[in-house]
Amino acid sequence: MKVKVRLFGHLREYRPQNKKESEIELEPGGNIIDLARKLGIPEEELSFSLILVNARQTDRRKELKAGDVVSFVTLTEGG
Amino acid sequence: MKGINGKILKVDLNNQQYEIDEKEDQFYRKYIGGRGFALYYMHKEMDPKVDPLSPENMLVFAGSILVGAQGPAIPRLTVCGKSPLTGSFGESEAGGFWAPELKKAGYDAVVVTGRAEKPVYLWIKDGEVEFRDAQHLWGKVTGEVQESIREEHGDKQIHVAQIGPGGENLVRYGNIVNKLGHFNGRCGLGAVMGSKNLKAIAVRGTENVELADREKVLELNRWTAKEGMQTSQGKRLHKSGTWTTVRSNNEAGALPTRNWNKGQFSGVDKISDESWQESIAKEGRGCFACPIRCKRVVEVDNEIEVDPAYGGPEYETVGALGSTLEIDSKEIIAKANELCNKYTLDTISTGMTIAFAMECYENGLLTREDCDGLELKFGNGEAALTLIDKIAHREGIGDLLAEGSKRAAEKIGQGAEKYVHQVKGQEVPMHDPRVKTGVGLQYALASYGADHMKAPHDTDFVSEEKHGFKSLKSLGLDKPVDPLSLSDDKVRLFYTLEVYWTLIDILGCCCFGYAPAGPVSLEQLLELIKAVTGEHISLKELMDAAERSIDMARVFNNKIGLTREDDRLTDKFFEDFTDGPLKGTGGIDREEFERAVELYYRMMGWDPQTLEPERSKLAKMGITWISKYEGEDS
Ligand code: SF4
User: Fold this and answer.
1) What is the mean pLDDT of residues B193-215?
2) Is A2-74 a domain of CATH 3.40.50.2300?
3) Mean per-residue pLDDT, B561-579
4) Does residue B2 belong to any structural domain of this protein?
5) Are B289 and B95 in contact (CB under 8 A)?
6) What is the secondary structure of B7-61 as a DSSP string?
7) What is the mean pLDDT of chain B?
8) pLDDT digits (tens, 9 = 90+) for B401-452
9) Ligand 1: does its nearest atom lie under 6 Å from the Cβ of B73?
10) What is the mean pLDDT of residues B144-155?
11) d(CA B575, CA B594)
């Protein structure tokens, strides 16, 4: 299945082909952890990131669906 | 106790006299600093019902038990007084250098009352205090004033907390700046300075405060500079400051756009972190002794011309003067920020008040004639720049907008209040509670009007793996909470986090230095407090002090006559999003929200109707003296 991935902020360096949005092929049943692994994002980084599936924060173990849009962005508070 | 001077300077501008209030260790342990110090004096020595712009209002400039120590991220100057914007207790914190310098000059805080007949500035040098003529400085912008005061004394190390024309002209959201780029931004306390004819307080000290274990304090700073800066947070705060929030809020469909009518901005690519970095951003700056150096600096050298001496816009400013106004030009946003900084106007309230005026204009409630010929449409950057000038000088429409959006709407009538987004009269900052309900609780419940820095945001506590959750687990966080929930667990999380960030504030620490938002852990913070003071002060004692200060602010507001009505969240957040990925969803359930607010009051030991703390709560906190129970034993 294919999901759309958007990476910004300090996670930008993990963009495939340096594009704002890319399609990634993922095994059916895959979750955010699998996707992050595929993109080469260290699991530790996920603790410092806002991860959105179709604009909502979601459990990183929840199964993704084909066509989901997953955004990985920096989590900063306030200022 | 080490780390303190034991002296509070009390200044009366009416007769240009001062006295020194010497305080025992007990005072410092009980009130810690910041609003703790301020509320002590505000309860003891002022009538809460006074007009905020009258000589009887009090303005307190406070450090803390830690400020002045060369540890990581402890630079904060807290200014408190009764706010002319909200009519409630007012409070605002700034980073920079002023508060550490005050400690070196021999004082832990300055309490100002009265009104000088003519403009003056206060000059504090190594314990000596002078009232100096400031008539030649009145009307000048902040850069000139700092320069002039430094020249007058032949000392470039002098730190100046001051107001520009915005504060002088009593703009209700006029702020106070130190070192040109660090702001006590919110609550209009700059206007209080203006009403007192107090242009500035300049400080210079040459004696470091004695610390119990100086080597340990320096070691913690070295850790932050080395290991701390290798953490994910250290690295990105240094590189991007808060700019990354533009993108994260936009991705979440919750970037305030077009006065909160939209949650995504078509111009986001032009105002995101990457875009600033690739164009007008310069090397960032920092605060006293802090190795993180996260403050933004920008420079524009074309015809717009933006002077890097005034720093650069942080996320809140990019939101308020950018997406909220549908302005996608970084140069214009940078210029708007620079103008606000020169004139000392709070960028959040300025942006939100202009956004309100633009929506009124677009809907025919304000005509071109009302707006002095300006075409006040969303996206018109030139008009926004002109308006900032007019607001600071109270010229034409600027006079109306200098009152803030709530008062302006009352004057305009015709239903204009539906375009105002505020709590207690203070315009809301740039975080949407529809994607993190705890932020809605902050906006509604902050004693000083809508604020986004009262507690860490929900997004960092949604799973056990989140850094926020892990780093503050020892506060008793036992389960993650959904960002949209308003359950009992959410209220409990909010309560705990609020007390914790209040603690960070009263300690004079910057939240970007410490867990969860910064690299220094809670355990290291406790070590730091021990190393500075030489006292073993437990986390329980500290959290109690923070909660005590929240009770004291509530009681102050109760004495003024604020009610539960004043804790109402703006209507916008009970409506669904109308665009972007969250279209047709998001509106907060009003009943659930009210239930959460009520539960919070009960957790605090406040009567949910009258908001009076129970007598037992005040006794538990050791502050019956601030209430009608003063002097009684039960
Ligand atoms: S983290 Fe940034 S804002 Fe905070 S004290 Fe350090 S430089 Fe100043």
Assistant:
1) 98
2) no
3) 97
4) no
5) no
6) EEEEEETTTTEEEEEE--HHHHHHH-BTHHHHHHHHHHH--TTS-TTSTTS-EEE
7) 97
8) 999 999 999 999 999 999 999 999 999 999 999 999 999 999 999 999 999 9
9) yes
10) 98
11) 15
* B633 has pLDDT over 70: no
Chain A neighbors of B581, CB-CB under 8 A: 54-55, 69
> Same structural domain for residues B419 and B446?
no
Q: Which helix (H) or strand (E) holds B321?
A: helix B315-321
Domain boundaries, chain A: 2-74
Cα dist from B113 to B41, B74, B135, B521, B524, whole Å: 11, 27, 20, 38, 38
Distance CA A42, CA A14 (A): 10
Do A74 and B247 lie within an 8 Å CB cutoff?
Answer: yes
pLDDT band at B13 (very low <50, low <70, confident <90, very high): very high
- Find residues 428-467 of chain B whose CB sits inside 8 Å of chain A: 431, 452-453, 456-457, 459-460, 462-463, 465-467
B511 lines ligand 1 (CB under 6 A): no
Confidence grade of residue A77 (pLDDT, cut at 50, 70, 90):
low
Burial class (CB in 10 A: 0-12, 13-18, 19+), B97: buried
Q: Does residue B186 sit at the A interface (CB-CB below 8 Å)? A: no
Q: Is the pLDDT score of B610 beyond 90?
A: yes
State whether A69 and B244 contact (CB < 8 Å).
no
Q: B46-104, pLDDT tens digit by residue?
A: 999 999 999 999 999 999 999 999 999 999 999 999 999 999 999 999 999 999 999 99
Q: Is residue B497 part of a domain?
A: yes
- Among A50, A69, A79, the residue with its CB nearest the CB of B248 is A50
Yes or no, beta carbons of B517 and A60 under 8 Å apart: no
* pLDDT for the residue numbered B25: 98
Pocket lining: B513 vs ligand 1, CB cutoff 6 Å: yes
Which atom of ligand 1 is nearest to B286's Cα? 7
Can you give the pLDDT at residue A79? 46
Please indicate, yes or no, if residue B1 is contained in any of the structural domains.
Answer: no
What is the rounded CA–CA span in Å between residue B497 and residue B438?
Answer: 10
For residue B462, being part of any structural domain is answered with yes
Is any Cβ of chain B less than 8 angstroms from the Cβ of A15?
no
Are B389 and B257 in the same domain? Answer: yes
Report how far residue B66's alpha carbon sits from residue B4's, in angstroms, rounded to the nearest whole number.
8
Q: Does A55 lie at the interface with B, CB-CB under 8 angstroms?
A: yes
- CA B501 to centroid of ligand 1, rounded, Å: 15
B99 in ligand 1 pocket by Cβ < 6 Å? no
Q: Test A8 with B251 for CB contact under 8 angstroms.
A: yes
* Total number of domains constituting chain B: 3
Show which of B406, B427, B448 is a domain's final residue. Answer: B427
Find the domain containing B405 and state its range: 244-427
Question: Closest ligand 1 atom to the C-alpha of B293?
Answer: 7
pTM of the predicted model as reported, rounded to 2 decimal places: 0.97
Best B239, B244, B296, B504 residue to mutate vs chain A (most A CBs within 10 Å):
B244
Instruction: Give the CATH number of the domain where residue B305 resides.
Output: 1.10.569.10
pLDDT band at B634 (very low <50, low <70, confident <90, very high): low
- Rounded to whole angstroms, what are the CA distances from B518 to B66, B240, B242, B288, B514? 18, 13, 12, 16, 4
Above 70 in pLDDT, residue B536? yes
Q: List CB contacts (< 8 A) between B517 and chain A.
A: 76-78
Nearest to A52 among B251, B453, B457 (CB): B251
